Amino acid sequence: MKIENKLILSNVMNGAFIILIGFFAIQNMNLVLTKLRFVEIADDLNASFLEMRIAEKNYFLYRDRKALADIREKIELAQKTIDDERPNIVPAIGETDFRKLESSLKVYAGHVTLLRGSRPGDPDRETELRAAGKRLKEFSDSITRLERQRVNAIILNSKRILIFSFWAILASALLMGHFISQKILRSLREIEKLTRSIAEGNFNKIEGFQSKDELGSVITAINSMSEELSHREEELIQAKKLASLGVLTAGVAHELTNPLNNISMIAQTYADLYDRLTGEQRVEFMGKVETETVRIQKIVKNLLDFSKPQDANPREADINTVIQKTLTLVQNMIDVSNIGTTLRLAEGLPPVFVDEHQMQQVFVNLITNAVQAMATGEKLYIGTRTGKQGATVEVTVMDTGKGIPPEFLPHIFDPFFSTKGEGGTGLGLSVSYGIIKNHRGEIRVESKVGVGTTFTIELPIWKGAGIHNEQA
Fold first, then answer.
1. pTM of the model
2. Any residues with CB less than 8 A from the CB of 409 and at least 6 apart, and which?
3. CATH class of the 3-180 domain in this structure
4. How many helical (H) and strand (E) elements, i.e. helices and strands, does the chain have?
5. In what order do the strands lie in the sheet with 442-448?
6. For residue 397, which of 341, 358, 338 has the smallest C-alpha distance?
7. What CATH number matches the domain at 227-471, 3.60.140.10, 3.30.565.10, 3.40.710.10, 3.40.50.300?
8. What's the CA gap between 431 and 355, in Å, rounded?
9. Where in the chain is the domain with CATH 3.30.565.10?
10. What are the pLDDT digits (tens) for 372-393?
11. Residues 374/368, Cβ–Cβ less than 8 Å
12. Alpha helices in 200-275 (DSSP H)
């Protein structure tokens, strides 16, 4: 379910709960008003009943038959009130108690009528009148008192329910808000982690996160973007390789010239001296041709291995060996440019876990940039050593060229940024940066105008299958 739908459902549920509570509160309020209205009527009736009892006592004290007429008048008035207020009384006390009230009043009225028609001083009639009046007054007082208690109970119960409902709605809103916010925050953390990884050149995916809401769609889109960027990075690396081939071709062509010339001279000599050569000498000549042919094959193979697309295949490697293989590709470019080379490769270095072809790409880029930045007769320095903390291997490529202006250094690894003007693509160092980051390494640059530039690469040493699984 989408987050929007969850929020709507949560709001609908809370709204329905609030409406239900409101309906309950209105029902209770109406009931309270009904009972309060009855209490008002009951107070008026009780006042009438009390006046009846007072008139009754006056009759017994003074034998004033006019008091009986007053009682009869008040009974009729009370009966009229009961009849008029029946719609308000019955919902409050119920049909049974209402009939009891009417019956008690009729019984009392009947005794008053009998007493008016009997001789004065009839003790039986007087006793019955007193008893009927007492029952009427007590019944009226009891139901009034009961309804007051019920009103208080309803108000107290409503108060409790409203307080409980308030905390229930608040808890529901907080729990739902916490659930949704945690879900959003979890997704945002995964997205932040992935975007940081992408920024560092690691095009991983968010795995194990399945959601059919908006965040799931965002994560799916970011995973697709990461996968596409990974493909683009591979294409970019290959494009830079092909660009580097243009620089290497001149040196390779020069290197191929020597063995081809040797083969040509051997063939000419062989043809001229064929009749005078012994069988052993002929084999020796063919051996030299084979040697030069193998030399050509090796040169071409190295060039093809470097140029053709390679799937990432990190494995345990000796960084010194990788550097020496790279130098076979660029040595002629260095020689043609008349650049001196100093190698200081530390012995006994721990192995690293790298893709050799990608690392050759990095070193070709750095060496090519260094050679292009130097004039004839300047020096190129390449060195290796164990890192300061003992957990990395450091590779240093240093030139004595013109250097990089300070304002350019912060952008040196940005894509398409170049200090070579129209002669550079601005991709070499960006691609190299991505390769090093993919190997969990670091690359730094220091430069001073007129002195030279130093690139330092740090690669984690190989500690076994744990790193293999992490980087594979």
1. 0.44
2. 445, 447
3. mainly alpha
4. 10, 7
5. 340-345, 379-386, 392-399, 452-460, 442-448
6. 341
7. 3.30.565.10
8. 14
9. 227-471
10. 889 999 999 999 999 878 889 9
11. no
12. 214-273
